[in-house]
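Q: I'm writing up a methods section and want to include an example of the input and output format. Could you take the sequence below and give the corresponding predicted structure tokens, formatted cleanly so I can copy it straight into the document?
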Amino acid sequence: MAYSHNLMNRFINSGIMAILRADDPKNIIPALEALIDSGIDSVEISLVTPNAVKIIQELHASLGSKVLLGAGTVLDEESARAAILAGAEFVISPVLSLDVLKISKRYGKMAFAGAFTPTEALIAWENGSDAVKIFPAMPAGPEYIKALHAPLPQIPLIPVGGVTLENMEAFMDAGCIAVAASSSLVSNKLIKEGKLDEIRQNAKRWIAEMQRIREKK
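A: Here is the clean output for your methods example:
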């Protein structure tokens, strides 16, 4: 689909997805605006967050196309549908759920299935996953993803779980198309305390590092 293809290009161009966990949209919206100002406009709201679907709805209403908004930790078809109807443009799961992939495609949204083994990654890809979330990325690390990528170079990979500013380059060199991070990029503490300058500064460091990595290739 052209729509999801355009969103995928936007996601890849950004290269960094922030995973936000906070229970109040009043805290998340300014934090997200700080990220957007710094160049990070792809964000996942985990469904383990209290009132996550409501938060997605409020973020979508407030920020619209300024943010590429996704729902994370989606485990079943019902949760995926609720998140999509609330405004999520993509759905991410920590596991391989064919039902989540099916409902995401039905609504024309991107889906990133979770996988760890080569078999899981291939099944996810063959069933419509736009990219495959390798989770947990640590402690297996970049060397594991490099080994997984070698026989499956056609599958776009995104490491989640343990990605930091310091190991981002190793993950990208291993064959990943982008990275995703939570506390190492924007912690719940910074969001709750409204430390927007710290959020901006950290986001800018991540963006600068991603640009450096891509420019060297």
